[in-house]
Amino acid sequence: MMVTGRCHCGQIGFEAEIDPTQVRICHCTDCQTLTGTAFRTNVSSLPGTFVLTSGTPKIYIKTAESGNKRAHAFCPECGTPIYSTTPGANPTSYSLRVGALDRRAELRPTRQGWCRSALPWSMDLTGVERFERQP
User: Using one digit for the tens of pLDDT, what is the confidence trace for 27-75?
Assistant: First the structure.
């Protein structure tokens, strides 16, 4: 599936090909902190298909619990997370942030990881009051 995406302010644009059956939720504490919320939803680009169509993201290198390093890209203007990948030149795949994708409503997660770190309430929101807009 071909997807396009952009940051909130529109400075960063990108496109890639993905497998829509590979959408994942990550509950690790790093993703909670980096998103400012309970979890992050990602989907990997197929090898060699990710292309920046506009702008240049700022890169932050994060060291995971395993010791592996990840390059996290975000818009330097509005702060929207765009992707993560291996540091260095010419990575083969990018972990795209589903919230930055134009077709995000079509991408239903199929797996959840780092559930040991999940905020207890984030695993079941069925009893939380709902509003169509800001109450």
Answer: 999 999 999 999 999 999 999 999 999 999 999 999 988 899 999 999 9
Structure tokens at 131: 């509003």
Edge-to-edge order in the sheet of strand 13-17? 2-6, 13-17, 51-54
In a domain, 44, yes or no: yes
Q: What is the pTM of this model?
A: 0.92
H or E stretch at 4 = strand 2-6
Q: How many domains does the chain have?
A: 1
- Which CATH number do you get for residue 49? 2.170.150.70
Strand stretches in 34-129, DSSP E? 40-44, 51-54, 58-63, 69-74, 81-85, 95-97, 111-113
* Alpha helices in the chain, H assignment, sequence order: 29-35
